[in-house]
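Run log // design_07
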């Protein structure tokens, strides 16, 4: 790759973090350099030493997302998207371990994409507290796109060439590694990663080599797990058939009937179970081993059960039932066949725009897309997904039937989703529901008042695959609302009936919190901040009272730390950080010398000239008890660790981070 670049670099241990940008942008470069150092540190702890001497972000001249040994080639728009630095970027860094130093043996299945997705995309969502939602989306994508002959085992995955192949090679694989981790425990799972990397660095490796490493560190035989999830196509489907309870001693018995309802043979499963009990805020949780197509399970509980949920956090790879997931765009785009119905009464320009939009849908997932005018269609089909275009469409009433049960109202001039009001005219709207003629098929409605918005909407729609509804504004268009309809009837949930057969529709109890597999090293140093607090709270500072030598020494210390952070001095005199004055202070007699300590990160953007953001913290305290302490504390030194040495410590830490990463 060759071009005229602005080059930036930063050393982290034995590795150089680098950024090559096509135009100077120190702030952007520093953000990526900081992210690079933190992610490399995290993955070295999780897997082993980084295999190259550098990692570089290289800005390409067209929009790409390529990962190479020791660098990634990203497009100019991509690198400036705010979410990329904590989503796709760590994924590319991690590929230097999986794929670019341990090479997948493609003939027996490409494991590297699934493992990379699990330890980057999934791990980041774990750190953010939304891993269960991520797994649900992964499973929904599999259910919506991997249909019939699109299913294949992981041993046949080579690379992503469609949404369905991604749902297998990335989605099923990451769920396999998640289940393996849950079976072995975090400590053993991490040991397995280290062993696999150490044994296979700069070699080709297979799923068999992964199994060998994890069997070695766990001292368990894992043949059954690898065979059914790696070598076997398809997925189990689970249904909670019944839940019954009886009084038993000092507690209650709970009897569950669970079925595997997939057509093919049974799977060996560890199914998470959560039981919500009367009068208990927290759910009772366990895992049940199920090795038959129909299993009877029995538990003893301390309180009366009211509700049972199987796999409530989507820890098990399986094909989701339609009742578990809300209608979504992925169900429409994932169908093998789609019928697009055009509004014949639309004006010429809009009808032409809708026709062109239909051609974009043909490239978004379905194997077959048929386009027809509403006046040429006699009967709403039940054997395929249907996309209805335009509110003036003769089949718009079918859309309304598909939305029954959801909090959406379509009115003459606006749309109301919950409490969100969306005006027509300058907006584009996407709604999804179940086909009223066949709930196994999706209905998608797309309407707009701006024909120029449709090309952009066609490009963006697949990226919002998990959502039930969307609203966009303007001709670009820009997303302003998105969401998912609630799940109304899941076969994985059962409410335990009372003696008379009735039951209470209770909310699931709180589930036990989980720790992420590992944590990203913090940008702020706890040790440095603790050191600052301890230093300012020392006895020799005398509590940093007004007009004291201790307060003067504190100001000198802060000025020195500002200098270390790279802030420019902005005091009264050139080269000074101090803004000084005298002031009469009640209770202290003569005029007291006051001093602010001021450091600046200069701006470089003329459009913001004259504007400033001020971040501050006071560094004085009560000294020996002036002006407002209890009588018995007068004359005693008040260290002021939390008032406000802690605030000063955070301010100094923030100054260093902003100086490195901000380009005002």
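design_07 sequence
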């Amino acid at each position: 790759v060759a071009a005229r670049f602005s080059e930036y670099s930063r050393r982290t241990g034995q590795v150089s973090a680098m950024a090559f940008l096509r135009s100077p942008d120190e702030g952007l470069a520093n953000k990526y350099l900081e992210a690079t150092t933190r992610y490399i540190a995290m993955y070295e702890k999780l897997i082993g030493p980084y295999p190259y001497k550098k990692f570089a972000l290289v800005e390409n001249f067209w929009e790409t997302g390529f990962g190479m040994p020791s660098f990634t080639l990203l497009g100019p728009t991509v690198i400036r998207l705010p979410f990329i630095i904590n989503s796709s970027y760590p994924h590319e860094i991690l590929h230097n371990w999986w794929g670019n130093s341990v090479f997948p043996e493609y003939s027996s299945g490409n494991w590297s994409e699934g493992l990379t997705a699990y330890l980057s995309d999934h791990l980041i969502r774990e750190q953010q507290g939304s891993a269960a939602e991520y797994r649900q989306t992964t499973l929904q994508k599999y259910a919506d796109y991997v249909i019939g002959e699109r299913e294949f085992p992981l041993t046949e995955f080579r690379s992503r060439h469609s949404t369905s192949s991604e749902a297998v090679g990335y989605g099923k694989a990451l769920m396999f590694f998640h289940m393996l981790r849950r079976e072995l425990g975090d400590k053993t799972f991490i040991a397995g990663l280290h062993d696999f990397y150490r044994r296979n660095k700069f070699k080709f490796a297979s799923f068999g080599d992964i199994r060998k490493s994890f069997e070695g560190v766990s001292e368990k035989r894992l043949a059954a797990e690898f065979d059914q999830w790696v070598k076997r196509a398809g997925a189990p489907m689970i249904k909670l058939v019944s839940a019954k309870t009886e009084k038993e001693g000092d507690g209650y018995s709970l009897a569950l009937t669970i079925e595997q309802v997939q057509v093919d043979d049974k799977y060996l499963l560890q199914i998470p179970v959560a039981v919500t009990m009367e009068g208990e805020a927290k759910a009772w949780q366990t895992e049940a081993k199920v090795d038959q197509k129909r299993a009877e399970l029995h538990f003893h509980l301390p309180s009366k059960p009211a509700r049972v949920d199987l796999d409530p956090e989507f820890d098990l790879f399986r094909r989701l039932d339609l009742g578990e997931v809300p209608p979504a765009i992925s169900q429409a785009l994932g169908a093998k066949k789609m019928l697009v119905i055009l509004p014949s009464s639309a004006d010429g320009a809009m009808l032409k725009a809708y026709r062109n939009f239909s051609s974009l849908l043909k490239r978004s997932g379905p194997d077959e897309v048929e386009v027809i005018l509403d006046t040429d269609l006699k009967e709403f089909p039940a054997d395929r997904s249907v996309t209805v275009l335009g509110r003036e469409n003769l089949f718009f009433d079918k859309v309304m039937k598909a939305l029954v049960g959801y909090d959406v109202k379509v009115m003459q001039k606006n749309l109301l989703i919950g409490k969100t009001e969306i005006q027509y005219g300058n907006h584009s709207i996407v709604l999804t529901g179940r086909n009223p003629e066949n709930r196994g098929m999706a209905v998608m409605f797309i309407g707009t008042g701006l024909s120029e918005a449709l090309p952009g909407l066609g490009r963006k729609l697949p990226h919002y695959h998990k959502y039930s509804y969307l609203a966009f504004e303007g001709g670009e268009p820009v997303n302003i609302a998105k969401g998912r309809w609630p799940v109304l009837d899941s076969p994985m949930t059962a409410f335990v009936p009372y003696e008379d057969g009735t039951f209470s529709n209770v909310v699931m109890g709180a589930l036990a919190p989980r720790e992420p597999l590992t944590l990203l090293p913090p940008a702020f140093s706890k040790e440095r901040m603790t050191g600052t607090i301890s230093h300012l709270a020392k006895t020799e500072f005398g509590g940093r009272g007004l007009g004291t030598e201790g307060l003067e020494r504190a100001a000198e210390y802060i000025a020195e730390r500002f200098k270390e952070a790279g802030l420019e001095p902005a005091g009264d005199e050139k080269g000074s950080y101090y803004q000084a004055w005298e002031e009469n202070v009640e209770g202290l007699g003569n005029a007291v010398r006051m001093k602010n300590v001021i450091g600046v990160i200069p701006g470089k953007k003329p459009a913001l000239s004259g504007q400033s953001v001020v971040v501050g913290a006071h560094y004085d305290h009560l000294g020996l008890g002036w002006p407002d302490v209890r009588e018995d504390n007068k004359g005693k030194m008040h260290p002021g660790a939390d008032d406000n040495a802690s605030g000063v410590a955070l301010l100094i830490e923030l100054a260093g981070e902003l100086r490195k990463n901000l380009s005002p």
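The longest helix spans residues 163-184.
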